[in-house]
Amino acid sequence: MIGEVEAAIVERLTGQLTGVKVEAFPDKPDTYNMHHPKGTVLVAFGRSTYSAPRSIDLVVQERRVEWDITLLMRNLRDHAGAYDVLDAIRLVLTGWRTSGCGKLMPVREQFLDQRQGVWTFVLTMAHSVTVVECAEEEDLPLLKRVNTEDDYGTTQAPPGEPDDD
């Protein structure tokens, strides 16, 4: 699921943003060099948190998935600078959903660094996904007969059926 959602976010941003390169966060960020003349947007899974189970017999939880959208820009305030692109990313992703997930919503934006003329910001977006266990069939005895008792008397097997009492 994580890989598919990451790819969908990259595709969405690529189709909506102009003047910047959009890609998945690199496997080796320490050796990554931004070569685009204006800037790059990097998409990465950030973290997940889980709610308490909603059921006692089956594991059903809400999973909150956070995505870190890192922005590397050569300009801060100019047209198509970091501020404008940060706003554009938030607008493009807020309320958008991919298959099987809730709508994305912004969590936080923050300045990270400025080094060698490159401004770095991160926008964290989140959505929820319902998680349900893959239940395995249990080998339990077959229920063959039920006798119940209520305020109206005893319910028994219809005449002609065996009564084991």
Automatic annotation (TrEMBL):
Domain of life assignment: Bacteria
Chain positions covered by the region annotation Disordered: 145-165
Coiled-coil spans in chain: none
One Pfam family in the UniProt entry: Gp37
Designated name of the protein: Gp37 protein
